């Protein structure tokens, strides 16, 4: 669940509590019961982003609180509505895969659990696409916690989830 934005640790940021609408493709994670919302874009109203100014220009990971509802829509394009519940510094790690064919995994660090997905799925969004070796340092991100109020499948958003 990544797109360019900036890191900020203060959960009292003006954007906390603001409504947000995201569109993206639900891709399965490596571990059972995990997913990533890839190809994420914020659906803005009147060109007004819900994100604070400090978030623009760096990597952002949206941490959505309705895991089971999202898992019902794997490999589908969805529109997610909710409210921003806070921000914290986080990291993405690029690691060797565990499958026989190797490959790289992107690991998102979040509250209470980490989510690992194939670099094929996440690489374009987090800037690791095309890499063949793990990173020596973590990639700093801003984690945006979102309280989800609705998830709707949409045909209006192109969704190509790599396998």
Q: Gap between N and C termini, in Å? A: 16 Å
Structural class: mainly beta
Kindly estimate the percentage of residues that lie in beta strands according to DSSP. Answer: over 45%
Supply the number of helical segments. Answer: 2
**Helical residue percent band:** under 10%
- Which sequence of SSEs, written as H and E, runs from N to C? EEEEHEEEHE
Average pLDDT, rounded to a whole number, is: 76
Shape: globular
Question: What's the gyration radius in Å?
Answer: 15 Å
Low-confidence sequence ranges: 1-12
* Total individual domains: 1
The biggest beta sheet reads:
8 strands, mixed
Q: Please report the total strand number as a whole number.
A: 8
Word description of this protein:
With 163 residues, the chain is mainly beta. It has one domain (2-153). The protein has two helices and eight strands. It has helices at residues 67-71, 119-126, and strands spanning 2-4, 19-28, 35-42, 59-64, 77-99, 102-110, 113-118, 139-153. Strands 1, 2, 3, 4, 5, 6, 7 and 8 form an eight-stranded mixed sheet that branches. The protein starts with a strand and ends in a 10-residue tail after the last strand. Mean pLDDT is 76; it is low at 1-12.
């Amino acid at each position: 669940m990544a797109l360019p934005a900036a890191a900020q640790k203060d959960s009292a940021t003006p954007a906390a509590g603001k409504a947000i609408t995201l569109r993206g493709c639900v891709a399965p994670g490596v571990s059972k019961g995990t997913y990533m919302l890839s190809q994420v874009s914020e659906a803005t109203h009147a060109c007004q982003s819900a994100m604070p100014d400090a978030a623009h220009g760096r990597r952002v990971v949206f941490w959505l609180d309705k895991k089971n509802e999202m898992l019902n829509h794997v490999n589908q394009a969805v529109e997610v509505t909710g409210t921003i519940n806070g921000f914290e510094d986080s990291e993405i790690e690029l690691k060797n895969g565990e499958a026989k064919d190797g490959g790289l995994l992107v690991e998102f660090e979040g509250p209470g659990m980490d989510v690992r997905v194939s670099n094929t799925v996440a690489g374009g969004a987090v800037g690791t696409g095309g890499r063949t070796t793990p990173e020596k340092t973590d990639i700093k991100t801003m984690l945006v916690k979102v309280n989800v109020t609705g998830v709707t499948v949409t045909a209006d958003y192109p969704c190509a989830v790599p396998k």
